[in-house]
């Protein structure tokens, strides 16, 4: 399960401008092959999960479900966020380690 370090690292990645947020922006980053990791909130709708997971599978991008939309948004200093794309391999690897994967 996620921990405080996971959310702190998300905030750091956001300040480094290595995070894309919002469903359409995330899908665009996956298509452009810039997304290294996609994070979906646990409370995302079934259609959103399917759409993003299908894109991730097709373009071979790792994805995880972590936290709720409120906690994800709060960690990057924004409103609720359902999907985040991490655009840096280093941040992506460290976030996966913090999630225990």
TrEMBL record:
<dbReference type="InterPro" id="IPR004038">
    <property type="entry name" value="Ribosomal_eL8/eL30/eS12/Gad45"/>
</dbReference>
<feature type="domain" description="Ribosomal protein eL8/eL30/eS12/Gadd45">
    <location>
        <begin position="5"/>
        <end position="95"/>
    </location>
</feature>
<dbReference type="InterPro" id="IPR029064">
    <property type="entry name" value="Ribosomal_eL30-like_sf"/>
</dbReference>
<dbReference type="Pfam" id="PF01248">
    <property type="entry name" value="Ribosomal_L7Ae"/>
</dbReference>
<protein>
    <recommendedName>
        <fullName>Ribosomal protein eL8/eL30/eS12/Gadd45 domain-containing protein</fullName>
    </recommendedName>
</protein>
